[in-house]
Design a protein that fits this description.
ten-stranded antiparallel beta sheet; five-stranded mixed beta sheet; mainly beta
């Protein structure tokens, strides 16, 4: 049965989403039908398709009582909008249906697992938001919340676990039928921990162990955990709050990190061995993964930064978008990310240049646009450094541009949207280390109107950035600073049957 609150949300998005032309949105990155979105939820396989839900407030471009929005796809590129899946309409989630996950059950139903929030006012007037885990069951469009919700609450946590910071369940099922869930929690020292729970049926859960914790070393509260095997290792993804900057690897504020190691499922023990940032750009948070039907581990994330959510372009009727889904692997101990291969099916006209000697700044015929897949390899003229820096100028129109700069002396890459035309003082620059190969650096840039995602050296580093430059800014140029370098360029336009002459 569809509640009055959910029907209201569905009616609102159906009515007002139709007023947003396709050309005002990204072409292939997920946005909400209308209004605000944040964390990806329920990224999952169901009946031969891939479903994605997301934190959703359709009624404004600001965070509000959380609903679940809903889209699905067959290829991770073209997405079909579905009606909102959940609204805060029961005692267990009256103040928000927060982040969670989804799984297909043996009986053909889809199970959603999410954090329900309810608020109470203390005697001193302070409001406390209690967080607990809930489930719902449905057919891929309509869902019924379990009458026994919550299936986990503060009484199920180990001693000292916070009942106010207990959220973001990620669920999976082992071949023997046992369900498992990881969820973020806060420990007595105030920092984050990832709790593991297990269930025989998906509705009756019990605490198993604490898999890992921050101990105030890598941020505080750990949000949006994911936990999965990859290339013979075990990977845990978490999004820490209140990170402290550490060199160029971890930036301050809200981050997303990958912890890699070994997992003994019988002993319920995860042994962390390595840790790294997942994305080095300004806009990436709360990643979630699925295993595709052909066996790939695919990740998607919210392409936004909590520190900049109050700085929105004037006149827009949507806010927030997802990253391009990425294929994950491990190489030389690092988490490797590359755009899903399905993107190549949308490549249009190809322009390529090989062994082009560049001094100063140059434009190349056929290389421009805001819907493009561009790969540039820069290398010195001889065995010694022959230049000081290399720059790619994107979304350029004479007044505005977004800059990618590789600095040879310290092998760092910079993303800089300072001159993208946005009239707010927000975080605009990120620097991160890269590893040249025999002096060469390979940079792949995928642009979709209002964003760019950069993949360095075949996915060894990734960086995401939202930009606000008017779509009329189409120019691309390449610049070698203080010297000369060879570059190889491969440029594809991306075609989606819309205004693809951009």
């Amino acid at each position: 049965m569809i509640s009055e609150k959910l029907q209201r949300a569905r009616d609102f998005e159906a009515r007002y989403g139709a007023y947003i032309p396709d050309g005002e949105r990204p072409a292939f990155h997920v946005t909400g039908t209308v209004g605000w979105i944040n964390d990806p939820n329920g990224f999952s396989c169901y009946q031969g398709e891939y479903h994605l839900f997301y934190q959703y407030h359709p009624y404004s471009n600001n965070w509000g009582p959380m609903h679940w929005g809903h889209v699905k796809t067959r290829d991770f590129i073209r997405w079909e909008r579905l009606p909102a899946a959940m609204a805060p309409d029961t005692d267990a989630d009256r103040d928000g249906c927060f982040s969670g996950s989804a799984i297909e059950l043996a009986d053909g139903r889809q199970m959603l697992v999410y954090t329900g929030v309810y608020e109470t006012r203390r005697a001193d007037g302070q409001v406390e938001a209690f967080q607990q885990q809930c489930v719902a069951f449905g057919d891929g469009v309509n869902y019924e919340k379990y009458p026994g919700n919550p299936v986990l609450d503060g009484s199920d946590l180990p001693a000292g676990g916070s009942v106010l910071d207990f959220r973001d369940p990620k669920v999976w099922q082992d071949p023997d039928g046992t369900f498992y869930m990881v969820a973020g929690n806060r420990t007595p020292d105030g920092s984050g921990a990832i709790r593991l729970f297990e269930s025989p049926d998906g509705t009756h859960w019990s605490y198993a162990c604490t898999l890992d914790s921050s101990r105030n070393e890598y941020g505080r509260m750990w949000e949006c955990p994911d936990f999965f095997p990859l290339d013979g290792q075990q990977v845990m993804l978490v999004s820490p709050q209140e990170m402290t900057a550490a060199g160029l690897e971890f930036h301050a504020g809200f981050g997303s990190i990958a912890l890699m190691g070994r997992y003994d499922p019988a002993a319920r023990r995860f042994a962390r061995q390595r840790i790294q940032s997942i994305d080095y750009g300004t806009d990436f948070y709360a990643p979630q993964t699925l295993q595709s039907y052909d066996g790939r581990r695919i990740m998607i994330a919210w392409m936004q930064n909590w520190a900049t959510t109050n700085c929105q372009p004037q006149g827009t009727r949507w806010f927030g978008q997802m990253t391009l889904p990425r294929e994950l692997s491990l190489r030389e101990g690092r988490l490797i990310q590359n755009p899903v291969r399905e993107l190549e099916n949308y490549r249009g006209h190809k322009v390529s240049y090989q062994d082009l000697l560049v001094t100063g700044e140059t434009n190349l015929s056929g290389v421009s646009g805001r819907l493009m897949d561009l790969t540039v390899t820069v290398r010195p003229v001889d065995d010694r450094p022959s230049y000081q820096a290399f720059k790619i100028h994107l979304a350029k129109d004479g007044q505005r541009e977004t800059l990618i700069r590789y600095k040879v002396a310290n092998s760092t890459l910079r993303l800089d949207r300072t001159h993208s035309g946005f009239p707010y003082d927000i975080v605009n620059v990120r620097d991160f280390p890269v590893r040249p190969r025999d002096g060469a650096v390979k940079i792949r840039v995928v642009m979709d109107r209002y964003s760019l995602e950069v993949f360095v050296n075949d996915g060894e580093q990734a960086a995401s950035m939202v930009i606000y430059t008017p779509l009329s800014a189409q120019s691309v140029s390449f610049e070698v600073v203080e010297g000369a370098a060879y570059i190889d360029v491969e440029h594809y336009s991306l075609n989606f049957g819309q205004e693809d002459a951009e």
